[in-house]
């Protein structure tokens, strides 16, 4: 049975973090002012099964930072039987930032370069068989694909969370195809020697 | 110039690639053109044998006969006087005595007309002796048609009214129609011999041969005073006749005209059959043709060019078929126009005229064109993209047939659905099979009719009356055979086309669990259903055809059992013919048709 | 049917074409056992013989050598008639090109295997309606294939494959002609069938189908080169792949 990837896995302390959480929170406030817990709930809805892994405190910490940066302002709302809660709303600067983010077309960098160099290095140094590395990575991705696909099918048809998982699935599919091409390439390179 | 080259290259390439189909198409049109050529040529046959014989024998313009009534009566006075001295008469020969007698020879016993003649050749009507010698005491000369029918030759012995005679010679003459067009048969004897044959029950009659000043209008003479006088002056019990040379010629040529009628009818049938068959062949290539149309349109060909390409191939075949058919027709016609026995020589084939060739070409092109027109129009109308991507015309949906077939056992379910897929092709199949069955039924009726007449004629003493009918029968049977062969080829081809067209559905059916035997049965049944319809239609149509060609059905309708036997006969024939393509179709490897790679 | 016996059992299967120098071994010494309720995916590059293998397993082609048992019947030497009857009862086929009959409605297409088995028209139609409901196309029952999308057509084809309650469903590149969302439709259906206990053998290029099967077999040059069960993985890997950083 092939071994899973050998890279050390760092267990993050408080769950996972979202890269663009600042922009997302600003955008969610563009419609109406909200409490912190409401924002967190809406994020969770959009992430579906992955919401649980989200870092607890990240939302509140970010809200604080945004307020300090002047993109948000907050006010306290008194409640009869609970401690006062903050309500957040966008400032004009915040609105401008949201508009910029929505128009931005940069795409998270795909990363074939790293793996590609891994294979080249392995072949050059004679340390390991690149075909084996590619195959092992393929298996790992296949497992992940199976997982993601099942999760996607478990979500209600046409829901927004299913859409996210479809994205995961299709990305993995593309990566798998490339890995197959890598295996073919390094296999024929081996045969030519 | 470039376009011409393109079209010709496409056509030649197509023909080379589909040799069998092109050969098939060619065969079908050739049979039509050949029969048509023969028919048209016969139409133009002049009466040269008759004219030649008439000239050689100095045939009369008018033959006047006086026939005594049977039974005892005094010798008839020879009252040809009004005719001999009539205005317009150039000369006469005779009158010659004519005795009715009975001829017996080898088991035959037939009535004859014995004319008494001088040993010297007559001025008018001197029969041309083609074998042996002219009359002498004890020597009889027999009319050639009669001699052939009876199988008599020079030197044979015959008995007339019990008296022995020798066959001295065989001759032809245009004073009467040849046997068996004219009955009873004619023999010539010396005057004394003929006179000796007269009895009280059968007294002598007389015949006078007349030459007119103006041979072209015997009708006028027949209506004139002299004829009137001749007809009325004779004794009331005596019958007098006048026959003109045109009448005789016409009767002689009835034979040819029957042939001609039959040929024209049959070539029409052949043309229809050819159209139906070609339509099936062309229809089965529709997908390819449609794709070709799409390609041409996509590269910018004008509609005219597209139509030219589509029709060009079949027109080339039509022209080739015309050439072959005309030549073949020229070769075969003399065989038919040899009127044989009663006249000198046979008609030389009339030379090929431009009009004849033109007529045949037009028919051939019409046949090829008709069959191609539907696919051509459809191909030209399909949008270019559809033509390139999806050239096969999808089968039309027939909900009633589909629902009905669900209740049937599997082979019939398949058969009905196969027929429903391509109704037009099934109808064409029905048409071609009906044509063949029609011809067969007409031929059977004719054969039966000839039998009946044979028996009737033998009873009344006319031997070989069927020799004319025989020729027609042989002709009809030959043409029926050709039609049947064509229809058979068509049946095989249609089955094959169905197999190919239904490749995917039949492979699918097998993958879903239909056994090969069920598929074979289904494919065969899909041809048997049209065959059944064709057989049922063909019986009444065949009888109608026979009537159209001049026969009388009421007096000669074949027994009902014969006619009904046509139905199982057709079904068995079709089942046998289609068995092999059906079996091949049912056993092709399923995977090849269905696989994705 | 004994639920512990394998539904499909092949030993040493071989399929050769041509002879002499032109000999091609499309399937070369393949052995396979499929337990009831299992889903097996066979993957490999084009021309590796996986489709040929599937047709051998379904009795649509005869092996050159080897033994093959389907639903406890030995089929490599069975005559065509017997094979056809066995296929009716024990097999369902799904093809890449769907192979629906163009002039029949979805309902008429689905009832076809039942009609070919001699089932009464009324029963066949009832079952067909049930199956179309099962695949979620009951409102398209009277539509012709030309009026259906690719995914819908393949779902009709799957319904047809289930018509006679087969022991195993064989699928040859079922998503080969489908786009991504149609593939999802078919995938969903396969998962449903698998959950209902249907045995599936799928030949495919599509990694999504391969990844969700119980067993994944890789084929190359007519032979099996790898067989694996894709287990393992955790919520951790999924969140990483989704772009949530640790």
What characteristics describe this protein?
heterotrimer; B: 597 residues; alpha+beta; 22 helices; 63% helix; 13% strand; elongated; C: 246 residues; alpha/beta; Rossmann fold; 6-stranded mixed β-sheet; 4-stranded antiparallel β-sheet; 35% helix
Q: Give the name of the CATH superfamily of chain C.
A: P-loop containing nucleotide triphosphate hydrolases
Percent helix range of chain C = 25-40%
Report mean pLDDT of chain B, rounded to a whole number.
79
Oligomer designation: heterotrimer
Distance between the termini of chain B: 43 Å
- Widest sheet, order of strands of chain B: 2-3-8-5-7-6
Number of domains of chain C: 1
Overall description:
The complex is a heterotrimer of chains A (193), B (597) and C (246). With 193 residues, chain A is mainly α. Chain A folds into two domains: 21-103, Winged helix-like DNA-binding domain superfamily/Winged helix DNA-binding domain (Arc Repressor Mutant, subunit A, Orthogonal Bundle); 112-192. Chain A contains seven helices and three strands. The longest helix of chain A is centred in the C-terminal third of the chain and has 33 residues, at 160-192. Chain B is elongated. In chain B, a hairpin with a 2-residue loop joins strand 2 and strand 3. A six-stranded mixed barrel of chain B has the order 2-3-8-5-7-6. With 246 residues, chain C is of the alpha/beta class. Chain C contains eight helices and ten strands. Chain C has helices at residues 50-57, 80-90, 106-116, 121-134, 150-161, 180-195, 207-211, 235-242; strands at residues 8-17, 24-34, 39-43, 65-70, 73-74, 91-94, 168-172, 199-203, 215-220, 223-228. Chain C has a six-stranded mixed β-sheet, sandwiched between helices. Chain C has a four-stranded antiparallel β-sheet with strand order 2-1-4-5, with helices on one face. In chain C, strand 7, helix 6 and strand 8 form a beta-alpha-beta unit. The model of chain C has no long low-confidence stretch (mean pLDDT 90). The interface between A and C is large, with 44 and 28 residues.
List the helices and strands and how they pair.
The complex is a heterotrimer of chains A (193), B (597) and C (246).
Chain A (H helix, E strand, L loop, with lengths): L20 H11 L2 E2 H12 L10 H11 L3 E6 L7 E6 L1 H12 L8 H14 L4 H25 L5 H33 L1
Antiparallel strand pairs in A: 1-3, 2-3
Chain B lengths: L1 H16 L1 H26 L3 H10 L4 E6 L13 H4 L4 E17 L2 E10 L10 E5 L6 E5 H7 L6 E4 L2 E10 L12 E6 H7 L7 E8 L5 H6 L1 H9 L5 E6 H40 L1 H13 L4 H35 L16 H28 L2 H6 L9 H7 L4 H12 L1 H38 L5 H36 L1 H9 L4 H33 L4 H4 L3 H28 L2 H5 L3
Parallel strand pairs in B: 3-8, 5-7
Antiparallel strand pairs in B: 1-9, 1-10, 2-3, 2-6, 2-9, 4-7, 5-8, 6-7
Helix pairs in contact in B: 1-11, 2-9, 2-11, 2-12, 9-12, 9-16, 9-17, 10-12, 11-12, 14-15, 15-19, 16-17, 16-19, 17-19, 17-21, 19-21
Chain C lengths: L7 E10 L6 E11 L4 E5 L6 H8 L7 E6 L2 E2 L5 H11 E4 L11 H11 L4 H14 L15 H12 L6 E5 L7 H16 L3 E5 L3 H5 L3 E6 L2 E6 L6 H8 L4
Helix pairs in contact in C: 3-4, 3-5, 4-5, 5-6
